[in-house]
Amino acid sequence: MNYVFEFGQVFAAWDELLAGALRTLWLSAAAMAIGMVVAVLGALGKTGGPKLLRWVIDAYIELIRNTPFLIQIFVIFFGLPAIGIRLEADQASLLALVVNVSAYGIEIIRAGIESISKGQIEAGRALGLKPLQIFRLVVLKPAIQAIYPALTSQFILLMLNSSVCSAIAASELTGAANDIQARNFRSFEVYFVVTGMYFALSLIFWGIFAMIERTFLRQPATR
């Protein structure tokens, strides 16, 4: 084995990798925030909406969960221009990530909502709470507490899936790595460093999620 490792050429382009990592963080965080809103609305429609709306939501969920994420990105980036909708690579990446995570989020949140007993909802009505208050205070928070681990895992997968956006030349971490590798041909070194960066980003997200759980979601100790 005569291969000589040269990580210096990779770290010489550290500013590009850092910019790509920040773009990955931005894409992931924005997709998480928007996707969560869409998922909550979709779960509400699926649990209490009219039959036609439930059918549309079910069709959307099955379509997204049973097709590759790469194809979804291609449809948005290469397919939408055929009907006059043109998006930049980063815009198409954000839209694809939102569409993807929302489908999974709807099912996760629906399961959480349906785990709340009807007795709790009736108690909220008996206290004179309005429907929105019942949903926000009686249903949503306990549901999120129940499904929080599943949601956080899904969000980590979303961040890792953002690497696929490099297929349409989005300016995220893997895209930056591909550009660097194309210049210096140090494939192992480039992708080894990027692997470590994705691992670090995952740990950062896990830390943030754990802090949110401790601060807002953990139930007080009972005696």
From TrEMBL:
PROSITE patterns: ABC_TM1 (PS50928)
Membrane topology, from the record: Multi-pass membrane protein
Family annotation (InterPro entries): AA_ABC_transptr_permease_3TM (IPR010065), ArtM/GltK/GlnP/TcyL/YhdX-like (IPR043429), MetI-like (IPR000515), MetI-like_sf (IPR035906)
Keyword Ligase in record: no
Taxon lineage: Bacteria, Pseudomonadati, Pseudomonadota, Alphaproteobacteria, Acetobacterales
Domain ABC transmembrane type-1 per the UniProt entry, residue ranges: 21-209
Transmembrane regions: 25-45, 66-85, 146-170, 190-212
Protein name: Amino acid ABC transporter permease
Keywords tagged on the record: Cell membrane, Membrane, Transmembrane, Transmembrane helix, Transport
Pfam families cross-referenced by the UniProt entry: BPD_transp_1 (PF00528)
Family: Belongs to the binding-protein-dependent transport system permease family. HisMQ subfamily.
Protein's cellular compartments: Cell inner membrane; Cell membrane
Primary site of residence: membrane
